[in-house]
Amino acid sequence: MLVKAHAKINLALDVLGTRPDGYHELETIMQTLELHDELEITTAPDITLAVQGADLPAGPENLAYRAAALLRERAEYAGGAEIRLVKRIPLAAGLAGGSADAAAVLRGLNKLWHLGLGPAELAALGAEIGSDVPFCLYGGTALVRGRGEAVTPLRDLPPLGVVLVKPPFGVSTAEVYRRYDALVNPPQPGCRRMLAAAKRGDAADLAACLVNSLEPVTMSLHPVIGAIKRELSAAGALGVLMSGSGPTVFGLFKSRASAERAAGMIRQEDCWVTATCFHGAGRE
Ligand SMILES: C[C@](O)(CO)[C@H](O)COP(=O)(O)OP(=O)(O)OC[C@H]1O[C@@H](n2ccc(N)nc2=O)[C@H](O)[C@@H]1O
Ligand SMILES: Nc1ncnc2c1ncn2[C@@H]1O[C@H](COP(=O)(O)OP(=O)(O)OP(=O)(O)O)[C@@H](O)[C@H]1O
């Protein structure tokens, strides 16, 4: 069985406060991208994972492996699976690559092992693996709250071209949240304007409402993020923002063709052209 694991961006992200479990209460609007990893999953006596395209562990440290092991344990399934993962989503980029792989494994094995778990049961398991996994199981556009487990699907946005630019380093999500907590006046933009824009469904309107409370934190550590934002704007993006905890910056364009043209003007090495995606994510 072939399963795609799609990257995400956060069109709006606000941190509402800290929780007793040490995590943060979020309000964020997430969007699936066409950019994806690929997983080939077949039944086998034990769980094995092989990773191509990135230097990642293939044991329990890998979120794809962890998802398979957790599902097998909870479903009390006797067999296993051979998983071959081809990585295309950049690592530690704010694009939820690991969470997308975990979600793809949960969906794939639910079918392959004939477990019959519903979306809510899979999302509850996913939340144990990572905060972005529940959204990755749904895909499309969604309002996400709590630690990341409360997912409300939104109606499809107009299709948009997207340019992703990743500076040549990763960031630790935990460190970014820690530094956010140390801010004296943390930004709290809320997601209401983006929600209203999403309802209206106008591309320029959406691009004008991009907000991310974590952006100033990661940007103060890595000022190059500001330079990348300026470069994407100069290349004609309707709007630009850092995704999640960063460091990837995305630019929104009215079509994939205009995103392709803009990418030709970007001098940064790691630059991808992709688009928003509404089918095939959690929706097959
Ligand atoms: C930045 C986002 O990607 C926005 O979508 C997510 O909030 C992070 O999602 P993720 O990487 O799947 O997060 P996890 O792997 O669950 O957690 C990584 C670390 O981020 C912090 N974390 C994450 C999610 C959350 N709601 N509050 C947090 O404080 C915690 O320190 C945690 O140790
Ligand atoms: N299958 C996987 N793919 C990518 N990273 C993985 C995977 N399994 C474990 N990891 C570990 O998780 C770390 C961060 O992974 P990931 O690429 O998902 O970050 P991210 O895009 O910043 O995620 P998020 O947006 O959810 O915060 C990696 O540096 C890697 O050590």
Automatic annotation (TrEMBL):
Residues binding ATP, per UniProt: P90, L91, A92, A93, G94, L95, A96, G97, G98, S99, A100
This protein's record includes keyword Magnesium: no
Residue intervals of the GHMP kinase C-terminal domain: 194-267
Gene Ontology biological-process annotations: isopentenyl diphosphate biosynthetic process, methylerythritol 4-phosphate pathway; terpenoid biosynthetic process
Keywords of this entry: ATP-binding, Isoprene biosynthesis, Kinase, Nucleotide-binding, Transferase
Entry's EC annotation: 2.7.1.148
Enzyme class: transferase
Domain GHMP kinase N-terminal: 62-140
Pathway(s) served: Isoprenoid biosynthesis; isopentenyl diphosphate biosynthesis via DXP pathway; isopentenyl diphosphate from 1-deoxy-D-xylulose 5-phosphate: step 3/6
Origin: domain of life: Bacteria
Keyword set includes Cytoplasm: no
InterPro entries recorded: GHMP_kinase_C_dom, GHMP_kinase_C_sf, GHMP_kinase_N_dom, IspE, Ribosomal_Su5_D2-typ_SF, Ribsml_uS5_D2-typ_fold_subgr
An example molecular function term from Gene Ontology annotations: ATP binding
Catalyses which reaction(s): 4-CDP-2-C-methyl-D-erythritol + ATP = 4-CDP-2-C-methyl-D-erythritol 2-phosphate + ADP + H(+)
Active site: K8, D132
Family, per entry: Belongs to the GHMP kinase family. IspE subfamily.
Function description: Catalyzes the phosphorylation of the position 2 hydroxy group of 4-diphosphocytidyl-2C-methyl-D-erythritol.
Protein's UniProt name: 4-diphosphocytidyl-2-C-methyl-D-erythritol kinase
Source organism of this protein record: Desulfoscipio geothermicus DSM 3669
